[in-house]
Amino acid sequence: MGGTHGRPDEAVHNFLGHPVPRRSTRTFADHLAPPRRPAPVPPARTQPRPAPAPVPTPAPRVAPSPRPVAPPPEAVVGQARASERRTVLDDERPSLTVPAAERGSGSLRFSLQWEQQVTSTGLHRSSDVHLGCFWETRDRHSGALQSLGELLAAPGFGARQVLRLGARSEQAGEEVLADAAHLDLLRRMVFYVYAQGPAAPDYAALAPRLTISRRGAGTVQVWAQDAPAGARTCALASIHDVAGDLVLRRENEFFPGTAREVALAYGFDDLDWNAEGTVPRPS
What we know:
- There is one protein chain.
- This protein is mainly beta.
- It contains three helices and 17 strands.
């Protein structure tokens, strides 16, 4: 029954027909020996973590320098259109020359206007100022253009006249139309203001002015100024043809008498006047 080393045979423990737990094979000496400790397992070697990439220090924010502001452009005064230009002939600028190349065609307008006169009740009061024109051709033939005496057109050929007098009204004034295409027939013209009645006009209150204009071009103005007391007639302006150029002159010369005094003062001494010296007879 006994097994080796004094241990019972394994069959003794199986007599009941089923296995029993196997006996420990450890001896008494094994129990007295100090317990064996398992060898320490060396820790697994881990890869060192890479050092985190240094976070770049943000550059200090610098406020953007303001953009240089361009100075505003200097104000440029626009030039007036040719039709809006106005030239006033006075003591400082008594004359103006229009070159032959700029004379063009069409009509030249010589318009007389004045300040409207009203009564104490606000009604318009008539004024005794009228526009007249002495003219002289290149062959020294001369005449006058004025409503007094019905001298309404001259000189010319056939139905086409170089000068023509328009209708007069207190509001619009009075004007002479000149055919610029045939103005070279004339050597000179003198425009004057006259009164049909015996009384002298109130030039200071009326402030008559002659405006010379052409379509698409500027205007030239001549004013009757500083009239002496009792002045009845005024030579306002003269126009001269000099080698094709038109020379405009401010005259502003006053006379106590009728238009005949103007004619004699400016060399139109071959005109035949009526007894009153107000209407020249056609020659």
